Amino acid sequence: MNTVKDPKYMNPYLAGVLLGLVVLAANFVSGRGLGASGAIKSAIVAGVETIAPKHAEASSFYNNFSKAHDGKPMHSWLVYQMLGVIVGGFLSGVFSHRLTWKVEHNPKIQSRTRLIFALGGGILFGLGSQLGRGCTSGSALSGMAVLSLGGFISMAAIFGTAFMLAYFFRKLWI
Amino acid sequence: MGPLVVNEIISENSNLLLAFFIGIGFGFVLEQGGFSSSRKLAGVFYGYDTVVLKVFFTGAITAMLGLLFFSLFGWVDLSLVYVNETYLWSSIVGGIIMGAGFIMGGYCPGTSFCGAAIGKIDAYIFIIGLFIGVFIFGEGFDLLEPLFMAEFMGSPRISEFFGLAEGVTVLIVIVAAVAMFWIGEWAEKKFPREKY
Amino acid sequence: MKNIKFTSRVILSIVLVSLGLLIAAVPRNTTTPFKLSAEQILDELKSGTQYLEPDAIAQMIVEKDPSLQLIDVRSQSEFEKFSLPGAINIPLDNLLSPDFQDILNQDAMTNVLYANGSTRANEAWMLIRQLGYHNNYVLAGGLNLWFETIMNPQAPSTTSSNDEIAKYDFRKGTSQALGGGGTLTTSENKESSTSAVPKPKPQGKKKTVKGGCS
């Protein structure tokens, strides 16, 4: 009863090879890997600078980042790349007829529970990605592609922790 | 020849345009692979769906091999390709926090945007969480800075760290990944789930 | 006996392992030259890519950039009288001593060489560049320009552009952070600061890549 394999999705190994080619393209063109959390950081820095410029001025976090981007935090590679990700994901959804509004969750839990944990998970992931200098895409995947030691450490820490905690959160998923 | 931007073969502005197209490729592949579904992503931690393992490692290995072969053919100068810096403690602690976020939220930042693009409401909530998390880090930066900067190791490659040739290192990673793929497909048969 | 089924996993595994064996078997790409020719160095000199401006260095110091390594190539006695924060002393005479090669020939840090003016640091830079070492730069204008711009910045006139004023504010702030502000117009630089040192114009950009998720 191997019902999990959904024929609608691409063969995972083929998807993996294509993903690898995308990472390779990024490195060949721009000399860098992919990323996601960096774009969120750009948005946060831009937001804080607009809403509370005094506050942004006083904090080294916002200041450093803004200087590194010539004062234009939204004009960064990762922001444009993430806009592309949204478009690409949407196109793929159109292509495979997967566009629907829904809260995806285990039928054994309420969608409210799912959303609360999604929010909590997002907060943790956002915090961790800044501390770890990148998320699964920026640090682990792209880091591993260039054989960065840090990339391998990130990958082991992220997946290792998730495996260890899987038991405690099993009601959410199975 | 490559990287094209660093060697000033293409301009900084075309670089940003290309970033957009690379992003489209990234988003398309993630969504096609099923990374827009949190239940599919979380499956790897319970053995019922190991698509994450397969896509992630196949992707990393393809890119590694590609870069080394490109370098071999003289198409890309590896010394000009960004290698992520290693700050030991922030990598480990950050990774642990992210791991906890992953198992609770079922997404990582890249995949949540993919999920949001096809209308997953839980992905939107996760993204709101991401913004809050980054904001908390920004506000608490002075407190976290010692940990953030601790144990800077430069940008070592794992091959240099273990004193191996790069090709040999990649071969070891490939063998490990092939073993994991085998375990993964075994686990999918052992812990099957209903269609979701 | 079971037949081996050629599932996508088996096919991919075979392809990846064979490519892995291939890349493990070939020696590392050696197309990049280890030593640079005189022409290449002259080209780099002409384009001025080795210079980093005092403002850029000051910012790295203030931000405690862990990849910054300042290297003072003046003599030990000059170094002891005054040095920039966190600098180490490698006198020009000892530049090729094996003790210092690990510092000069590496990939992790951004080494910035400095002396009173630009000349001595440039000489050091040329020597180690010829050995093929990367990541070494020269503080443009040396300590003289450093004192002129960072420690004792000249207030711009009121008609200056916003950029100029912002630059001045940054320099003033940096100068305070580094304990300057007029007190450190030091005697050790007097002799050389009187001789008009032509300010080198840093034109080239540091050829590095930004990346990662930060």
Question: What are its keywords?
Answer:
heterotrimer; A: mainly alpha; disordered N terminus; C: alpha/beta; five-stranded parallel beta sheet; 42% helix
Largest interface: A-B, 129 and 139 residues
Q: Roughly what fraction of the amino acids of chain C lie in strands? A: 5-15%
**Total DSSP E strands of chain A:** 0
**Backbone CA Rg of chain C:** 24 Å
CATH superfamily of chain C: Rhodanese-like domain
Percent helix of chain A, as a range, is 55-70%
Quaternary state of this entry equals heterotrimer
Order of helices and strands of chain C: HHEHEHEHEHEHHH
Radius of gyration of chain A, in Å, reads 19 Å
Low-confidence stretches of chain A: 1-7
Mean residue pLDDT of chain A: 87
Measured distance between first and last alpha carbons of chain A: 17 Å
Q: Which range does the strand content of chain A fall in? A: under 5%
Counted by DSSP, the helix tally of chain C is 9
Largest beta sheet of chain A, briefly?
none
Q: Please work out how many helical segments of chain A DSSP would assign.
A: 9
Task: For the record, give the distance between the C-alpha atoms at the N and C termini of chain C, rounded to a whole number.
Answer: 54 Å
How many domains of chain C? The number is 1
Give the beta-strand count of chain C.
5
Mean pLDDT of chain C: 74
**Any idea how many domains of chain A?**
2
